[in-house]
Amino acid sequence: MTDIKLGAAPPGVEGAGFFATSLDKVIGLARANSLWPLPFATSCCGIEFMATMGADYDLARFGAERPSFSPRQSDMLLVMGTIAKKMAPVLKQVYIQMAEPRWVIAVGACASSGGIFDTYSVLQGIDEIIPVDVYVPGCPPRPEAILDGVMRLQEIVKNESLNRRNTPEYKALLEKYGIHTNNVR
């Protein structure tokens, strides 16, 4: 009986060694199952997020069990609730300080589109100041919807190329929002 070593060709197959998958897929799978959320909650959607972190729904099952309240140690920003225009620069600064690669989920109607607050003081969607990867509808969305948003983001992360963040398209997207890749503070 022959021992099969990791990375060695199976018995009967010629060749030195092989990989069963690409490095992009391995790193994507690791990233998708180890997202560190930064909750930015201002309203009732934050209460639904708390329920999502609780025992009944348990966001930890999806690899996001460590909510961080430090932007520098997070890579998934969950914006929940009404964002006033005075708060917009703070949210943008939090986004800029996050670890790269970083992803954003807009949770609820207020973060996605301003919700019922069509006033001069409320930002009509956070996509006016930062790029958003996943929108979770609802007012407020149920914990199941937030879990679905996280799972949709995991699919995006799994399939994202390692070079995407260095492409001219991605840099142009950040430039559109006034975010320069070299101004991280």
From TrEMBL:
Family listed: Belongs to the complex I 20 kDa subunit family.
Species for this entry: Albibacterium bauzanense
Protein name: NADH-quinone oxidoreductase subunit B
EC numbers, comma separated: 7.1.1.-
Oligomer and partners: NDH-1 is composed of 14 different subunits. Subunits NuoB, C, D, E, F, and G constitute the peripheral sector of the complex.
Heme listed as a keyword: no
Cofactors demanded by this protein: [4Fe-4S] cluster
GO biological process: aerobic respiration; electron transport coupled proton transport
Top-level taxon in the UniProt lineage: Bacteria
Described purpose of this protein according to its UniProt entry: NDH-1 shuttles electrons from NADH, via FMN and iron-sulfur (Fe-S) centers, to quinones in the respiratory chain. The immediate electron acceptor for the enzyme in this species is believed to be a menaquinone. Couples the redox reaction to proton translocation (for every two electrons transferred, four hydrogen ions are translocated across the cytoplasmic membrane), and thus conserves the redox energy in a proton gradient.
A Pfam family of this chain: Oxidored_q6
Main localization (coarse): membrane
Gene of this entry: nuoB
Annotated compartments: Cell membrane
